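Priority: medium. Attachment 1 of 2:
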Protein backbone atom coordinates (compact mmCIF):
# COMPACT_ATOMS: atom_id res chain seq x y z
CA UNK A 1 0.00 0.00 0.00
CA UNK A 2 1.36 3.42 -0.91
CA UNK A 3 1.64 6.31 1.54
CA UNK A 4 -0.70 8.34 -0.69
CA UNK A 5 -3.36 5.64 -0.16
CA UNK A 6 -2.77 5.50 3.59
CA UNK A 7 -3.29 9.22 4.23
CA UNK A 8 -7.02 9.32 3.39
CA UNK A 9 -7.65 6.00 5.17
CA UNK A 10 -6.38 7.38 8.47
CA UNK A 11 -7.66 10.91 7.82
CA UNK A 12 -4.01 11.77 8.03
CA UNK A 13 -1.67 14.59 7.32
CA UNK A 14 1.84 14.41 5.92
CA UNK A 15 4.34 16.03 8.29
CA UNK A 16 7.43 15.49 6.11
CA UNK A 17 8.16 17.98 3.39
CA UNK A 18 10.22 15.67 1.21
CA UNK A 19 8.33 12.35 1.54
CA UNK A 20 7.81 10.05 -1.41
CA UNK A 21 4.05 9.42 -1.42
CA UNK A 22 4.58 6.48 -3.79
CA UNK A 23 6.57 4.63 -1.11
CA UNK A 24 5.14 1.12 -0.70
CA UNK A 25 4.63 -0.43 2.73
CA UNK A 26 3.58 -4.05 2.96
CA UNK A 27 2.92 -4.42 6.67
CA UNK A 28 2.26 -2.40 9.76
CA UNK A 29 3.01 -2.47 13.47
CA UNK A 30 1.30 -0.55 16.27
CA UNK A 31 3.61 -0.07 19.26
CA UNK A 32 4.65 2.40 21.92
CA UNK A 33 7.41 0.14 23.26
CA UNK A 34 10.45 0.67 21.10
CA UNK A 35 11.85 -2.67 22.29
CA UNK A 36 8.83 -4.31 20.60
CA UNK A 37 9.57 -2.39 17.40
CA UNK A 38 13.12 -3.72 17.40
CA UNK A 39 11.99 -7.28 18.22
CA UNK A 40 8.92 -7.73 16.02
CA UNK A 41 9.12 -5.56 12.92
CA UNK A 42 10.63 -6.20 9.52
CA UNK A 43 12.34 -3.82 7.09
CA UNK A 44 9.78 -1.72 5.24
CA UNK A 45 7.17 -1.73 8.02
CA UNK A 46 4.81 1.19 8.73
CA UNK A 47 5.10 2.07 12.43
CA UNK A 48 1.96 3.38 14.16
CA UNK A 49 2.81 4.98 17.51
CA UNK A 50 1.79 7.58 20.04
CA UNK A 51 5.38 8.39 21.00
CA UNK A 52 6.70 11.58 19.46
CA UNK A 53 10.23 11.94 20.78
CA UNK A 54 13.36 11.71 18.60
CA UNK A 55 14.10 8.23 19.97
CA UNK A 56 11.21 6.92 17.84
CA UNK A 57 13.05 8.05 14.70
CA UNK A 58 16.33 6.57 15.91
CA UNK A 59 14.61 3.25 16.59
CA UNK A 60 12.87 3.39 13.21
CA UNK A 61 16.20 3.91 11.50
CA UNK A 62 17.73 0.90 13.27
CA UNK A 63 14.71 -1.29 12.43
CA UNK A 64 14.58 -0.04 8.81
CA UNK A 65 11.01 1.25 9.30
CA UNK A 66 9.59 2.72 6.07
CA UNK A 67 7.44 5.45 7.66
CA UNK A 68 5.93 6.51 10.99
CA UNK A 69 2.30 7.44 11.77
CA UNK A 70 1.75 9.45 14.95
CA UNK A 71 -1.68 8.78 16.46
CA UNK A 72 -4.01 10.10 19.17
CA UNK A 73 -3.70 13.61 17.76
CA UNK A 74 -0.11 13.87 18.97
CA UNK A 75 2.24 15.98 16.89
CA UNK A 76 5.98 15.47 17.17
CA UNK A 77 8.27 18.33 18.17
CA UNK A 78 10.37 20.04 15.50
CA UNK A 79 13.42 18.13 16.74
CA UNK A 80 11.75 14.82 15.82
CA UNK A 81 10.59 16.10 12.44
CA UNK A 82 14.07 17.44 11.61
CA UNK A 83 15.73 14.14 12.55
CA UNK A 84 13.24 12.16 10.43
CA UNK A 85 13.87 14.43 7.45
CA UNK A 86 17.62 13.96 7.91
CA UNK A 87 17.19 10.17 8.02
CA UNK A 88 14.68 10.09 5.14
CA UNK A 89 11.84 8.60 7.20
CA UNK A 90 8.42 10.00 6.25
CA UNK A 91 6.18 11.15 9.10
CA UNK A 92 2.38 11.08 9.06
CA UNK A 93 -0.18 12.25 11.61
CA UNK A 94 -3.66 10.94 12.44
CA UNK A 95 -6.18 12.29 14.94
CA UNK A 96 -7.43 8.74 15.64
CA UNK A 97 -6.35 6.24 18.29
CA UNK A 98 -3.78 3.55 17.56
CA UNK A 99 -6.55 0.94 17.63
CA UNK A 100 -8.60 2.84 15.05
CA UNK A 101 -5.67 3.50 12.72
CA UNK A 102 -4.47 -0.12 12.86
CA UNK A 103 -8.03 -1.31 12.25
CA UNK A 104 -8.47 0.92 9.22
CA UNK A 105 -5.16 -0.24 7.74
CA UNK A 106 -5.96 -3.90 8.38
CA UNK A 107 -9.42 -3.53 6.87
CA UNK A 108 -7.82 -1.99 3.77
CA UNK A 109 -5.63 -5.07 3.35
CA UNK A 110 -2.41 -4.27 5.21
CA UNK A 111 -0.94 -7.18 7.14
CA UNK A 112 0.70 -7.04 10.53
CA UNK A 113 4.31 -7.95 11.22
CA UNK A 114 4.98 -11.61 11.79
CA UNK A 115 2.31 -12.83 9.40
CA UNK A 116 4.85 -13.60 6.68
CA UNK A 117 7.75 -15.97 6.29
CA UNK A 118 10.49 -13.56 5.32
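Attachment 2 of 2:
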Amino acid sequence: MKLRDILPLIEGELLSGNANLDLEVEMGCGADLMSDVLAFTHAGTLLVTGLTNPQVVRTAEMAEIAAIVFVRGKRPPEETIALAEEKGIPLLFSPHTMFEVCGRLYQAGMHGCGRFDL
